[in-house]
Structure of Sortase family protein:
Amino acid sequence: MSRRTARARPDRGARSRAGARLRASGRLLARASGRLRRVAGQAVSASVTTTDPAARPLPPRRPASSPLARRRLGTGPGVPVLAVAALMVLIVAMLGVEQVTGINMLPDRLSAGLRPPPKKFPVLPASRPTGLAIRTLDLQAPVHDVGIASDGTIAVPDAGRAQEAGWYDQGPTPGQYGPAVIVGHVDTTSGPAVFHQLRELRSGDQIEVTRSDHRVAVFEVDSVERFDKGRLPVDEVYGDFSRPSLRLITCGGRWVGGETGYSDNVVVFASLVKARSG
């Protein structure tokens, strides 16, 4: 997911590794997001009522694990993940008390990004995304599934499908509780790609995701952030299960070459605000 710049034009060999660069930037995410999703999903399902309590993320189309994946991802949650799980259970419980009593239980600094905005929102059953539209960017693109690559990182669309976006199929589908994650290239050797203008989104812009059940999940942008790839905040990007949300991720920042490509990730944070028939 590189981005062409006038100041530094990468060589053709380096640009051909666009998929590897995004996978490298997602290495930490791939290791932690699955665990965080599972423990957070269990915590939320125990304390939050949805329109379909039995709904779960769709199962992946590939085998659940492999020896390589087990070596990379580990066989047990470990103390840090158990600590995160315990903290999330406590936070979800306190949020539940707030909803019932109206009394703020969490410090504002801690709960920023966890407490849902003061808007009602629907909750949808599981259904894979098939299309993405952002009117303010004049963007309309197909969406296909991506999972975990053979090296244990998050897979990305092939360079030949650079005008398509990829939904991370190990997480929630758009409209379920938790962050649905869609990744895409910013450019290729042939020019701008699907997320070339992603950094231009602003708070309040809308993103429409068409699903295979012919419903359209409408998300509203909360913020657009840029993070150093070596310091991507996994909890902030993947750990909020307080409501249905969306993360759009591409590359940005300056060109550094090698397996990293561009130095940063551009991440769009958006929340589900409504749903309609497609």
Notes: The longest strand covers residues 261-277.
